[in-house]
Amino acid sequence: MISMIVAVKKSVAPFDPNLDNYYSSADGVTGELLRGTLNAIIRKNYVRYTYTSKCVWKALFEADNDEDDPGNVIAIYSNSRIPKLNRDCGKAKQEDNWNKEHVWAKSHGFPSKNDFAHSDLHNLVAADKSVNGKRDTRDFKKGGTATIYEDDCDGCKQVGDNVTDEQYSFEPPDDAKGQVARIMFYMYTRYNGTGNNENDTTELDLVDRKTESSDGKGEFGYLPDLLKWHCKHSVTPRERRRNDIIQSWQGNRNPFVDRPEYVEKIWGDRYPSIFEDCNNTIPPIDPPTTPTPPTTPPATPPGAQVWINEFHYDNAGRDEDEFVEIGCNSAVDVSNYKIFLYGKDGAMSIDRNGMTKIKILQGQCTPDKFVFQDYGGVDNNLANSGPRGIALTDASGKLLDFISYEGTVVASNGPAAGSSSIDVGVSQNSSTRRDQSIQLVNKVGATTTCEKIDFEWKLQPRSKGRPNRNQTINCSENDKF
């Protein structure tokens, strides 16, 4: 019997969800120089786990989770739904278990468990054990026969039966090709021979020929096929979600998922014909503009506090007038403060296009006039079934408040990563009146009414944009923290 996994995630550095900031040093850079620039970006804040640790299994549970059935993982290549607990730990013998697949085969450059690349979570994916075994250490290339995979991997093909054959390659099904390519580009970029106390991991290289796993060169083929797969198969919402989750565990991101145009910027000059008709091309370049000096986020006045003060997410009939309100105890410019929504699994909520649901606030909050953000529509709503989380950050990205309804959420990514939400303890349902919201009111018996801690949650008629009924914001200098 396989026991439940208990794993403790290591602390990662706070992450700025503004990817323009994360990749700012790569602006205007191309070719091999871009590879080096991206290497510096994704080496920073990298958190390493040992390959055999429970944390690696736990991270893959989350990253490759079946959102439609959280009890399963979705295996790469075969697209099989496999129960999470049917993992192959070295003792299990069932062929229909799942195990950890090194997309860039570990024998091609990092066979030792001491190599950083050996346990890099971006390169590890859940895979059907039998399919993983048949894929072996093969290069990636289009073509081959599917006979060996007929029963367990629709679309998988291979050439060659032995590593000594003239060609020894594997073609994954279409729905995995783009992901495979971008993982390979990440590995090529992340492990470029640069130090960083990484036990001298061999410099990895992508080439246009058959490679050997025994020559110690860290090479993998075939680069042109991978480039074509990247062009034809765009980044998916699952890839973006996976990237967020791995970042919450490991501290770094796959730049080719966030910025697919980097692929052409690195290899476009060498393979121009491949990029003539590419779905993941470089976006149009805007005309040059006069540079403007960087702006500094407005400072929060000393002693001021900003918090989530009121929200509405469910009511009788069709949900209407969903919103989140921000309260404060002093005049504060909340421009560029952000609201993030979190799902049951602890990940930031995304819309149907795979984009993170972020609301950017504007304006001034005062103790008698609060700021609110409306929600509504299929891709812009507050979900009914909990637990669900709501996080608030200031303009610098600092987490100010993290609440939830219908249970507690442990954030796995984004600004609240590693934090547990505070359940408001009050909920709405299909019987709630449309004019009611969940809001903060003065605590019974409270001697001060200045900070969020002085209030408690209650369901009552909404008062969007102003202090709630039975809520008084009254601070003396001694009351403020």
TrEMBL record:
Entry keywords, A to Z: Hydrolase, Nuclease
Organism: Chaetoceros debilis
Polar residues composition-biased segments: 468-481
InterPro entries per UniProt: Endonuclease-I, His-Me_finger_sf, Lamin_tail_dom
Renumbered residue ranges of the record's region Disordered: 461-481
Source organism superkingdom: Eukaryota
GO MF: hydrolase activity; nuclease activity
UniProt-recorded name of the protein: LTD domain-containing protein
Highest classification ranks of the organism: Eukaryota, Sar, Stramenopiles, Ochrophyta, Bacillariophyta
